[in-house]
Give the backbone structure.
Amino acid sequence: MAEFTLELNDDQKQVKEWLHGFAADVIRPAAAEWDEREETPWPVIQEAAKIGIYSLDFYAQQFFDPTGLGIPMVMEELFWGDAGIGLSIVGTGLAAVGVLANGTEEQIGTWIPQMYGDADDVKVAAFCSSEPDAGSDVASMRTRAVYDEAKDEWVLNGTKTWATNGGIANVHVVVAVVDPDIGSKGHASFIVPPNTPGLSQGQKFKKHGIRASHTAEVVLEDVRVPGHCLLGGKEKLDERLARARERAKAGGERVKNAAMATFEASRPAVGAMAVGTARAAYEVALDYAKTRSQFGRPIIDNQGIAFQLADMRTRVDAARLLVWRASWMATTGKPFTSAEGSMSKLYASEAARDVTAQAIQILGGNGYTREYPVERMHRDAAIYTIFEGTSEIQRLVIARTLSGMPIR
Ligand SMILES: Cc1cc2nc3c(=O)[nH]c(=O)nc-3n(C[C@H](O)[C@H](O)[C@H](O)COP(=O)(O)OP(=O)(O)OC[C@H]3O[C@@H](n4cnc5c(N)ncnc54)[C@H](O)[C@@H]3O)c2cc1C
């Protein structure tokens, strides 16, 4: 088991440098354009695919890095380049992790490659859980999956919302209710293969930030998928449902939800995205403060500015430490006894929101315009306290874990 270390090994340093080069030379120069266009930056994804940054192999390598630092390093560098383009590149990973976490070996081997396509024909994937009435409250999900035994098919009906890559994905992973009597324990995940009739894109959202990333509703009308598209398979589902029904009958003993454990492990990755955006804004502000002169001296000569920069950098580094700790814990199988995954996401996302706001302040009027990138970074940063569990939900998870009380 890898010891926790703050030092990247030689391989990791090389990968980091390579990613940073791509972020600086390809992503950053394209960021303003795709933010304005509010469209998926297919040419940038293609460039990433050509050099191996957008590929199953690369993410698998980083995902299974025994130190746990591979994925946070990738996220930080790509999102340092730009958050909207960064999410367009890594958004497929959400769906891939859904299959990796719950699928059989055969499902993993069949579907994950189709999520990425190849350098000549890149594809994306979408993970569809949220619904108009089921955001933080996942148990309120209404999308139904009903088994048609005669045909060995599942029939899906419902509306998903806020799906990253929803409707433009080659493969959609859809979470649906299979037993409405046992809340979130009665949910299961399904693959919806390419071109399946009945799946369509609803509204595409016009957003405040990460505008290069496509976010849309996904409408499911009598979508029929073969039995083998149920992630994990029917036998495993039946066993899990039987156990959950028994527990519910026995008085609803609180059991650790597997989905919650998965979230704890995936939240540091979102924290790392936030670290990337925060670091980018801090660097722009530091450079600006050194070169902008007022009252005959660089503005960084004033403690009022220099101390802000000191605080900003301290928060970026503290956020990274929490993210790396949680990622190492997830990879080495350490139990999250204090909800360390949620802690890292909570702290990093609020740091990104605040650091990007401070960066605007340090750039003054220029910071408020689209001539400089910090305005975009601040709009982008607002997502981190919302998706993959809002800040309030992270605090709830941490408080419940620490206290053992069902805090509401
Ligand atoms: C750009 C973007 C991309 C997304 N991508 C995906 C995706 O790919 N797949 C997917 O499934 N979903 C995705 N989401 C959905 C995202 O995860 C949800 O928006 C998020 O979980 C919050 O749900 P909600 O928007 O319904 O807010 P609500 O749950 O309605 O929350 C509204 C407010 O109430 C607060 N609140 C709610 N319950 C409590 C409570 N018990 N205690 C205290 N405060 C509470 C929340 O913190 C928040 O401040 C995405 C969202 C966005 C905006």
Remarks:
- The pocket of flavin-adenine dinucleotide is lined by residues 94, 127-130, 135-136, 162-164, 207, 210, 215, 383, 386-388, 390, 392-393, 396 (CB under 6 Å).
- The longest helix spans residues 258-291.
- The longest strand covers residues 153-164.
